[in-house]
Amino acid sequence: MIKTFCNKCGKQLKYGDHRKVELTVRPYTTYGGRFNLDYCESCFKEIIGEEEYNAMIQREIVHKRRIEERKKEKELAQ
Question: β-pairing, 4-5 with 33-40?
Fold first, then answer.
């Protein structure tokens, strides 16, 4: 089993208890690249800001509701 740690605070993260972030750097030189980072919820919230974090959580809630509604509709149609 691979252990994962927060890239900001260093806390060990459990599966499903963290945010995976892909950071793309495009500098004016040729040394750009992509970085895959892992953050605990508190560090992620601190990095992106309170307003953006709350908006993201609301979008996730709406998305999960839609998935559940579609599942129920499929079950009723069968």
Answer: unpaired
**pLDDT at residue 30, as a whole number:** 67
Average pLDDT over residues 45-68: 95
> Distance between CA atoms of 35 and 21, rounded to whole angstroms?
8
Is the separation of the CB atoms in 38 and 4 below 8 Å?
Answer: yes
What is this structure's pTM? Answer: 0.73
3-state secondary structure labels for all residues of 15-69: CCCEEEEEEEECCCCCCCEEEEEEEEHHHHHHHHCHHHHHHHHHHHHHHHHHHHH
